[in-house]
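$ run holo --ligand "zinc ion" --emit tokens
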Amino acid sequence: MTVKTILTEPNTLLRQISQPVEQVGELEKELMNDMLETMYAANGIGLAAIQIGVPKRVIVMDLSKEENKKLPMYFVNPVITKKNDEKITYEEGCLSVKNFFAEIDRPSKCEVEYLDYNGNKQNLQAEGLLATCIQHEIDHLEGILFIDYLSKLKKEMIIKKLSKQQSKPDRIIV
Ligand code: ZN
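-- output --
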């Protein structure tokens, strides 16, 4: 397992639409292992393949709160088949949008069809944090970031600040 570099906005790759996986084989499993390792190293709870530059419809998540009780979840080709009208609000952040958080409304429940780590078809009924997290990650597969739900003005301001962060050299004290 390898910890990969996480791409950050602005980056055109993050805006790319990811392609479906034809078959869950060794390469895909290796990808999922690397993604999980990368996500844990960055203290995230979800990661989409495109965030490490791989445009495949693959997501990993782990919402467990206890450090020594890992509960990894793997989603290949996830599709939301149902959403309810009721919304829930979470303050969201993203490993690809450094140091910014915003309250986002999303459907509070959804159903997702996907293939698991072994390529088996699964169906998940999600609510609360799980529902929000899977919707955030599936957005990544469509090239959508949570800041896209904010007003144009606010989004532009954030992207401007992120560009400045990227262009700044690392600070060293010698
Ligand atoms: Zn994200």
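-- notes --
The longest strand covers residues 73-83.
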